[in-house]
Structures are given as structure tokens and as C-alpha cells.
Write a structure and sequence with these properties.
It contains 4 helices and 5 strands; from the N terminus they run H-E-E-E-H-E-H-E-H. By secondary structure, the chain is α+β, with helices and mostly antiparallel strands. Helix 1 packs across helix 3.
């Protein structure tokens, strides 16, 4: 009975095992400020990242880069981290032993504030009436 318990534990551990690189990066040339842990963020984006060959390669390279989400949401401030959600754990229990683990990349942040129209543009708009 003890051997069966060890075998079940080993199989369960394999289910959530797997590696995979997720890059906590910013778009090339962008000026991104890091957001403190407790700072408010207007945008929260989660990207599920699937890997093949037990984490050796992603299915889609762009999904592994935080820069993709920062660029998509035009963020100038960002907080970036990777989590293993409950869903990741449950799904990886079945897909992990077959070599397809998953992880979740989270990017939170704030886009640039909307540019205020200049006084000259306000005056031009008033003169059109």
C-alpha cells in the first residue's frame, strides 16, 4: 500500500512539473517605469503560456514576453509577474506528464495619461464656431 501511495504522489508531482522561460521584459526602446507592489493599476492582463517538450519550448514565443502585453495596452508603468493559477495546476496535472505544462504571465499597469489639448488647439476650436 505504501508503494502505491508513493507512486500516486510521484505521478501527481509529474503532473505539475515542467519548466518554461517567461520573460519579464519591456518593448525595445520603450521607457517603462516599474509599478510598486501596492500601487493601483488600471490595466490587468493575464496571458496563459503553453509549453511543449516539458517546458523546453513555448508554442508561441510572443506569449512568453511581457513586452507583448505592455505594447498591446500601451503601458508606461508596469508590474510583471508569473503565477501558477489553480487552473494551471489542474490542467497541467493532465497535460504536464505528456510534456505540455502551462503557466500564467500577469502584467498590471497604467497607460500614458491622455494628452490634454493645448491652449492653441482650444482657441482654434472656439474660432471655428
Amino acid at each position: 500500500m505504501r508503494v502505491l501511495g508513493i507512486a500516486v504522489t510521484a505521478v501527481a508531482a509529474l503532473g505539475v512539473a515542467g519548466c518554461g522561460d517567461i520573460f519579464l521584459d519591456a518593448p525595445r526602446g520603450a521607457h517603462i517605469s516599474l509599478l510598486r507592489e501596492k500601487s493601483p493599476a488600471r490595466v490587468r492582463a493575464e496571458q496563459v503560456v503553453w509549453f511543449k517538450y516539458w517546458g523546453n519550448r513555448p508554442f508561441d514565443e510572443a506569449e512568453t514576453h511581457a513586452a507583448t502585453l505592455i505594447d498591446r495596452y500601451h503601458l508606461t508603468e508596469a508590474r510583471i509577474y508569473m503565477i501558477n493559477t489553480f487552473a494551471d495546476g489542474v490542467i497541467s496535472t493532465f497535460t504536464g506528464p505528456l510534456g505540455f505544462p502551462r503557466r500564467t504571465l500577469v502584467v498590471e499597469g497604467n497607460p500614458a495619461p491622455a494628452a490634454k489639448p493645448s491652449a492653441a488647439a482650444d482657441h482654434a476650436a472656439e474660432s471655428d464656431h
